[in-house]
Amino acid sequence: MAAWDDEVIEEFRAGEGRVGGPFAGYDLLLLTTIGAKSGLPHTKPVMYLRDGDRLVIVASNAGAPRNPAWYYNLRAHPTVTVQVGAELFEADAEVIDAGPERDRLHLAMVAILPALAEYERTAGRVVPVVALTPRAPGGAG
């Protein structure tokens, strides 16, 4: 999986956010978190949607029973680095794992990628939603 992620990240950076393959046509960002245990930076390509000034991502982990590693990293270190297109900025990550806001945002993501509904069923867990709020004015704009 790491080699595949590296290829997507390289393509993303070379194309200023444009990629092919399974992410073609979707809004994709690069999320860099600090390892909860290692303290090292880790970058992952993640689909997102905009919700006002925030960018919203989901910790679906393609339907795995456990959240993705980046989720645990941002729980430990909620200041993350985000790249959207050619724009790079810091953001505060807020986990929204229950309630009406989580449901609204999750349904909005499912509308973009219907497979997310199946991921939640196969995972056997409530998939957390994460809102990324840019720290600097103009970030994610």
Automatic annotation (TrEMBL):
Catalytic activity: oxidized coenzyme F420-(gamma-L-Glu)(n) + a quinol + H(+) = reduced coenzyme F420-(gamma-L-Glu)(n) + a quinone
Coiled coil location: none
Source organism, top-level taxon: Bacteria
Listed SUPFAM superfamilies: FMN-binding split barrel
One Pfam family of this chain: F420H2_quin_red
InterPro entries on file: F420H2_quin_Rdtase (IPR004378), Split_barrel_FMN-bd (IPR012349)
Gene3D superfamilies on file: Electron Transport, Fmn-binding Protein, Chain A (2.30.110.10)
NCBIfam families: hi_GC_TIGR00026 (TIGR00026)
Family, similarity comment: Belongs to the F420H(2)-dependent quinone reductase family.
Annotated protein name in UniProt: Nitroreductase family deazaflavin-dependent oxidoreductase
